[in-house]
Design brief:
The protein has about 240 residues and is α/β, with parallel strands linked by helices. About 35% of the residues lie in helices and about 15% in strands. Bound molecules: zinc ion (2 copies).
C-alpha cells in the first residue's frame, strides 16, 4: 500500500512539475535558473554571450574596434543586405544548438527565437515575411523536424509576420563540414529551388537558419530570392571563423 502511495505522489509531482515548472534550466548549461529567465548568471558572463559591440555591419561577425566590415565581407559581394546572429557558435552555445538540431530538443526554438528577435530589433531589421532555410524531406523524416522551420515559427509568433515555405531542398548535399566557401556554394547551388517568386516581390524578407558558418547557405538562398526589396539573414549563432 505504501508503495502505491509513493508512486502516486511521484506521479502527481511529475504532473505538477510539467504544468507549473518550479525550476527552469539554463538553455546553455542546464543549471537551474529562476522562473522567467533562460540563461544563468554564469553563462551571462561568458564570451559567447557578451560579444563585443564591434561587429561587421554586414555579417555580424565580431571584429576589431575601429573596423566597419570584416575581411570576408570586404572580398565578397553578398546577395543579402545584412545577416545577424545573437551568439557565437562555441562552448555551451554549440552544445545547446547540437541538442536542438540532433537531439530532439525542440523546446529550445522558443528561447533561441527570443534572442534572435532581440538582435533583429537592435539592428533595426524590418521584414515582411520569414523564410526558413529548407531541409531535404529525407533529413526532415530522419530528424522529425526542420530546425530552421521551428525557429521561423517562433519568430513569427513573436513578430506576427508570416512564415512562407517557398524554398525547397531538392537534392541532399554532401557533408559541408570540410568544404571551403566556394566549394560549399557550388555544392548548394541547384540543391535549393524557389517555389513561388510572386510572394517576395517588393517585400523585405528574412531568411532563418540555425547556424551560419561560412554564410554560403544564406548566400544561396538570397540569390534565389532576387526580386525582394531587401534580403536579411538571421541565425541563432555564427561561427567565429
Ligand atoms: Zn548557464
Ligand atoms: Zn562580415
Amino acid at each position: 500500500m505504501k508503495k502505491i502511495s509513493v508512486y502516486f505522489k511521484k506521479f502527481t509531482d511529475l504532473i505538477l512539475e510539467t504544468l507549473y515548472p518550479s525550476k527552469i534550466k539554463c538553455i546553455f548549461c542546464d543549471k537551474d535558473v529562476p522562473k522567467g529567465s533562460y540563461v544563468c548568471n554564469n553563462c551571462l558572463k561568458e564570451d559567447f554571450f557578451n560579444i563585443g559591440e564591434t561587429r561587421c555591419m554586414v555579417c555580424d561577425k565580431p571584429i576589431l574596434e575601429g573596423n566597419i566590415i570584416c575581411d570576408h565581407c570586404k572580398m565578397i559581394k553578398h546577395h543579402y543586405n545584412k545577416s545577424t546572429s545573437p551568439f557565437i557558435y562555441k562552448g555551451n552555445v554549440r552544445r545547446a544548438i547540437l541538442k536542438f538540431k540532433s537531439d530532439g530538443a525542440k523546446y529550445l526554438a522558443e528561447p533561441f527565437a527570443r534572442f534572435m528577435v532581440e538582435r533583429l530589433l537592435k539592428e533595426k531589421i524590418d521584414f515582411d515575411i520569414i523564410i526558413p532555410v529548407p531541409s531535404h524531406p529525407k533529413s526532415i523524416k530522419k530528424r522529425g523536424y526542420n530546425p530552421a522551420r521551428l525557429l521561423a515559427d517562433e519568430i513569427s509568433k513573436l513578430t506576427h509576420k508570416p512564415v512562407k515555405d517557398i524554398l525547397c531542398k531538392v537534392t541532399l548535399t554532401q557533408n559541408q563540414k570540410y568544404l571551403n566557401y566556394k566549394e560549399r556554394q557550388e555544392n548548394l547551388e541547384n540543391s535549393i529551388i524557389l517555389k513561388d517568386k510572386s510572394i517576395i516581390k517588393n517585400k523585405n524578407v528574412l531568411i532563418v537558419d540555425d547556424i551560419i558558418t561560412t554564410g554560403a547557405t544564406i548566400e544561396t538562398c538570397a540569390k534565389l530570392l532576387k526580386g525582394a526589396s531587401n534580403i536579411y539573414g538571421c541565425s541563432v549563432a555564427k561561427t567565429d571563423l
